[in-house]
Fold this protein.
Amino acid sequence: MALSLLPHANVAARVATRNHPPPASTPTLLRRRNPNPLQCHSSSSSSDAAATSTALQCPHFQSCSGCTHEWNLDRPPVIEEAIEFFKSLGVSDFTFESGRLQGLPCRDCLPVRGARSHQLLTTTDRRSHHLPRLPEVGSQELLLIDPIAGKINLHRINGRCLCTVILKFQMAVTTYNTSLPVSDRYQNGKVQISLVWNSRNEHSENHEKLNALSNFLWRNGGARSSNYLIHSIWANFQTSNSNVIFGNRWRHLLGQREFWEHIGGIDICLDPSSFGQANTQAFNSLLRKLQKHVSYGSSVVDLYAGSGIIGLSLAATRKCRSVKCVEINKESELSFEKSVSRLPKTIDSTISWHNTDASLEPLRWLEGSDVVIVDPPRKGLHPSLIDALRHFALSERKIRQAPDGSIVKMKDEKRPWILRAREASVHVEGKTTWDKSQKWPTTLIYISCGWESFKEDSRNLLSSKAWYMEKAHAFNFFPGTQSIEVLAVFKRGPRIALAKKKAGKKKTPR
Ligand SMILES: C[S@@+](CC[C@H](N)C(=O)[O-])C[C@H]1O[C@@H](n2cnc3c(N)ncnc32)[C@H](O)[C@@H]1O
């Protein structure tokens, strides 16, 4: 079934890797969680068994463009560079959690091209080979998809080619089924399918193909089928030729409307239109680590917040006095609202979600919080936000001297979209009234999925000595790739050497 779609040279290079598994070595730095059962039972710890347990074990490796290495998945090559990078910034206790290595990612969006193959919709594509497999269907009269290497091949539905009507599809797996023991939930996940349709809306021509396709999928994988694997089917309408993944119009077609996950200690609702992390388990580990870096009762601003998972999880687990989420995608608002509705009633936190561009007026969003969280897209932080982070950190004395403790200039703003953005789209008031005296973040937590942009942003932040980096952790969100997810904690001010700190302590009179 796997088709060789890569250029020849690329395939040859991978064959070479496959033929020579490197010796299994797990440096002390690399701590494995949920080790593969193979490894647990190998008290003889033969190097073969160890090498297998950290191998990709994917039949599509040679034909799929998703993964770059097949062996030692618990130590992606980029880790060597990361160790050196963090050491150069004064962080020598950098940690890397490799987590579970096989069958993890829960979300992917793949383009549709070409026409070949004989499958309904399997999930044996790049990075998604773990997803529950949908039944294979031999009929050539129906939709046939082969999601290898991101190239999904459509055949025909009722004799007509579909390639011109469907652009791509997104699949997301929910493991939220509280009637199952936690250990069984992953294997029993259900798939939410979003079909990105090349038309303006559900009434445009081709709508009968959309209905036929979704009904076909539902009949074969929906709640009443013997292979119940599909959680829901959505359509998105997108006619643009640009790189934009989704259009603005969404329609829920079949199955359950709400898609829930339990991450970071809370229930989270994720509509297909809002951002969702691809590896739920690794993201959960990241959130657990992040929570330890936020003091109880902090005020938090969560920039690039998506549907607010990070901020809401902190509100619940760190009893934050306030959480402000800032996100540019309006579609995430509904998911945020639904998640707020399931927060424990005991939470006494003022929570808000603002639909705006975090790079406009960044000082306004930073003011009044102890902790700022940034989780930007791959390209990293906006220059205006980096400037703002450096600016207030360097202007500390000026801030203290300002009569109202504020350095945000209150110009007479008239632009309606700025004024609208200042108002929270969602606002939940806490019960306790806190002292609202002005303050500025002393902790900056940077979550990054773009290693190159992260390095550059870190250098920019640190160059003025406005911040120093205190801790750094990385997580294996996509085993088999060079991609790592970084969690870095910065503290305001210049780094105070440990020796100096100790010396200072001795002098303190008792
Ligand atoms: C990597 S995602 C993180 C989302 C969220 N923190 C999470 O973990 O689910 C980046 C988010 O930044 C949002 N974003 C991109 N540019 C933005 C901007 N200029 N201002 C605010 N949000 C932005 C995207 O829409 C996306 O939801």
The chain is about 25% helix and 20% strand. The domain at 280-499 is CATH 3.40.50.150 (Rossmann fold). Residues 1-44, 113-163 have pLDDT under 50 and may be disordered.
